Fold:
Amino acid sequence: MLEEQVVSFKVAKLALEKGFRDTTGKWRGKSYYNYKGELNGDVIDQLRPANRNNPKFDSVAAPHQSLLQTWLREIRDIHIQILIYSWSERTYYYKIHSKRAYVSNSSKFILDSDVVIGKYVDVLEKALHHGLNLIKE
Structure:
């Protein structure tokens, strides 16, 4: 069965730093990471009165990879392309393109990754991380 892949805690925190916003909480049908980095983990510490206004205890939205990829494309104009390198070995690589000057390189073609061996979702995770790091604002 195919399932949407949620981004890692590391990528979720970076996305938040770069301006990605989404509602969090299972009651809203959305995945989240608690402050310990646990996917859909216990948030009881966040609910304690002494911790309510402490950002250390905030949960972080855990979007699906496809949603974050769409946000990068539609809001930040950073386009991620995953390509097959070898059908027999199931190796993939990615390219990142942008019309905006988020980096010093003025070319539209910004980044071409090394060949990454592994699942498509693992390559997309690395590409999302690189794409987020291109945002300088």
Notes: Confidence is low (pLDDT under 50) at residues 101-109. The helical segments are 9-17, 44-47, 65-74, 120-133. The longest strand covers residues 78-86.
